[in-house]
Amino acid sequence: MSIPGHMIPLSNQYPAAIVRPNGQVVRHNPLYSDQLADVDVLEIFQALHFSGHRSQVHVTPQGTLLKARLITLNEKAGPYDSDALLLEWTPMGEAEMRLAFFQIISKAVNASLILDEIFDTLAEEIQRFIPYASGTIVILDDTQNITKVVVKLDETGQAHIQGDVQEFVGYDSLMSDLLHQPQSLILHRQPELEVKPSLIADAAQETNLVVPLIAKGYVIGFINLAGGDFSPESINLLEDISEQLAVAVENARLYWQTQNQASREFLINHITKAIRTSLDIETILQTTVDEVGRVLGVSRCIISYWGRLAESADALAFHQCFQYTLPGISPIGNTAQLAQFEHRLFRNRQDNSGQYNPFVLNDVRDYTFDDGLFELCGLKSLAVFPIQLAPDGAFVGTISLQQCDTFRAWVSDDIDLLTALAEHMSVALHQANLFHETEQQRQQLEVALLELQQTQMHLVQSEKMAVLGQFVAGIAHEVNTPLGTIMANEDTVLKCIETLSGAGCSEADRDKYKRVASDLLGLNRMATERIEEIVKNLRNFARLDESDMKDVDLHEGLEATLMLAQRSLAGHITVEKRFGHLPAVTCFAGLLNQVFLNLLVNAIQTINEKRERLPTHQGHIILTTTYDPSAESVAIAVTDNGMGIDEAHRAKVFDPGFTTKGVGVGTGLGLALCYKIVEKHHGAIHVESTVGHGTTMTVEIPVYPPKPTNS
Fold it and tell me: Other C-beta atoms within 10 Å of 230: how many?
């Protein structure tokens, strides 16, 4: 209904006002200016506008009833310009007072998710409408077994929050009865009867009013008022209050659970990051006990770790222990007894899947198989969680949460948190163990590498001598031939000298003997030079005294190698040298000569193998050297027309121990050493082969070794 503003009668007797949403007063009764000044017009207007209602009732701070009605001043204007509030003040009767009380309570419980603030408002407002001498509000935990929060109300309407006062509901007969049969009670003191003490009844007062707090069909707590004149209306009023309070507690609990879940997830992430970034077992375990103990507020947090070595409880004397203790709580001195107890405990708590179930005691008095350990440690509540090592689930330790100052109900959040942490610790410890094993292996490998480095040259020389052994006969023949010539000529030369020194020798004989002696000495000189050449080639090949890189003519090394293999070539193998122009190469000459000899030996052996199958086969070996100026590298190729290498074997020819030769012919080390030597020169070795036609082995090395980089 549209009511023009100028038509509204506002006499001095009419407690009313018309106000726009922006606070502009259209008309008002001057007698109610003070009340109007305390009204939040915008809040009332928005509540009406968004709720869809045209009117609401509010209670003013002065204790009067304010009826607010939405009216329209101008139908053509917009909503915020056309709407206004018609405010009317009237004194409150009992019904209005009750309505006002519920508005205050509703506003209090809906305005905050902090229980402390809600309890403060409740204590004050309840005292105004239901006077009391004392009171108590008890909030239970999620399990309904233990009190979580206790609030004491005094006669001045003040709330005193006791916090985490954990008492077992089962030990309080009144709470236990109301938990199972929820109802409102008025208790009158009877001096002749002995009454058991209860948190929700003041035995010093004549009367106690107790109302359970029920949310979603479950008792979540109790509210008690004592020392008042409690009428049936008081009971009804407190029951209505309890409904509001139960909703507030549930909302606050949900909020707290959400916050708690977030904080615990943060804790898990924080601890997980801390223990995953460390590969030291002691750091992992100490970090865990410190963080868990601090966040959960337990008296003690203890990790007993014995690893895989503890097959029996008696072996746990050598376990590692990590403790966190709350200030004022004594640490456990002898932890071996606790570790042995936990070890025995979990040996009997393994399920069919191989997992160990947590051991939880809200009250240690419920467990009688501890042999006095709980009393010795001063425990009231205990929760122990197994640590199983990934990936095989080996039982390697425990996490123990201990409460010494009061009983504690280990809620599902606590159990889930520790179970999750134990799983993360399992992975972290597994990684730490792997790192420890890897570190030990690394140290062992360092020792082995040092030994290999010390014996590497011995191995190379051994392989070199093994190859040389195949040419001993040829070398001996090469030396014996000129040596035999010298020895044979020696007697003849001596006879010539004796004849020439005799007195009866004619001049003609002297000339003859001189010519013979001169010819024989010439032959001996040639034989000596041949021996000298052989020795020089041997020295060039071996180069045992050269441990540093030097500029070397590779052709000299190839010639020396050919000399050593000359007798093995016999008459059925020809060697073709296709030597290009090579610059001096900076290298370990002795090592490269070993490579040339191994490649030449392999070529001779494969030709001989083919000749055994085809006796008429004529062997042919080609030695090719080339220089690539653009790459500053040289290539030495050894080509034979032997058996060739099967494709399946080509990738393995450089593997140590691999050989296709018969027993006693090949060691499988020759080409492997060649590969290592060429690699040491920053070069490469390649194999090209066709079965039945032959093989080419090519060695490529840089002319100059690469300069070391700063990286």
Answer: 19
- Other Cβ atoms less than 10 A from the Cβ of 192: the count is 4
CA trace torsion 96, 97, 101, 104 (10° rounding): 70
Q: Which of 539, 541, 589 is nearest to 565 (CA)?
A: 541
Phi/psi region, residue 664 (left: phi>0; alpha: psi -120 to 50; beta: rest), is left
Question: Is the overall model pTM greater than 0.70, yes or no?
Answer: no
Q: Are strands 381-389 and 218-226 parallel, antiparallel or unpaired?
A: unpaired
Looking at domain 280-289+309-437, its CATH architecture is 2-Layer Sandwich (3.30)
Q: Please state, in angstroms and as integers, the Cα–Cα distance from residue 6 to each residue in 2, 25, 74, 433, 588, following that order.
A: 12, 13, 12, 89, 117
| Side chain identity, residue 671 | L
**E-state strands within 390-533:** 394-403
Element (H, E) at 481: helix 472-501
Torsion on CA atoms 472, 475, 476, 482, rounded to nearest 10:
180
Name the DSSP letter for residue 348: T
From 18, 117, 16, 108, select the one nearest 64 (Cα to Cα). 16
Average pLDDT value for residue range 447-474: 67
DSSP 3-state of 139: strand
What DSSP string describes 154-183? ETTS-EEEEE----BGGG-HHHHHHHHS--
- The torsion region of residue 657 among left (phi > 0), alpha (psi -120 to 50) and beta comes to left
- Assess whether pLDDT exceeds 70 at residue 214: yes
pLDDT in tens, 132-171: 999 999 988 877 887 888 899 999 889 888 866 678 888 8
Could you identify the residue written with the tokens 């109301």? Answer: 178
280-289+309-437 matches 5-92 in CATH topology: yes
Amino acid letter, 148: K
Bridge partners (DSSP) listed for residue 688 = 696
Range in 143-157, 340-354, 626-640 with the lowest mean pLDDT: 340-354
pLDDT at residue 197, rounded to an integer: 86
Q: Which residues does 91 contact at the CB level (< 8 Å), separation at least 6?
A: 64, 65
489: its two tokens: 């000529």
**CA neighbours closer than 13 Å in the CB half-sphere of residue 322:** 19
**Average per-residue pLDDT for the chain:** 79
Give alpha helix (H) positions in 395-551. Answer: 412-469, 472-501, 507-542
Superfamily of domain 543-711: Histidine kinase-like ATPase, C-terminal domain (3.30.565.10)
Q: Are 399 and 301 in contact (CB under 8 A)?
A: yes
Class of domain 101-259: alpha beta
Q: Which two tokens stand for residue 643?
A: 């058996």
- The helix (run of H) or strand (run of E) holding residue 567 is helix 566-569
Tokens of 35: 């009340």
* Domain 5-92 fold: Beta-Lactamase (3.30.450)
CA distance 199 to 170: 12
Other CB atoms closer than 10 Å to residue 657's CB: what's the count? 10
pLDDT above 50: residue 457: yes
pLDDT at 30 over 50: yes
**DSSP conformational letter for 654:** T
Q: Is the pLDDT of residue 315 over 70?
A: no
In DSSP notation, 48-90 reads HHHHT-SEEEEE-TTS-EEEEEEEES-TTS-HHHHEEEEEEEE
- Helix, strand or coil, per DSSP, at residue 186: strand
**H or E element, residue 109:** helix 94-111
What is the DSSP secondary structure assignment for residue 706, as one 8-state letter? Answer: P
> Nearest-5° angle of CA 420, CA 421, CA 423?
65
Q: 222-244, pLDDT tens digit by residue?
A: 999 999 888 888 888 888 888 88
The residue extents of the domains of the chain are 5-92, 101-259, 280-289+309-437, 470-542, 543-711
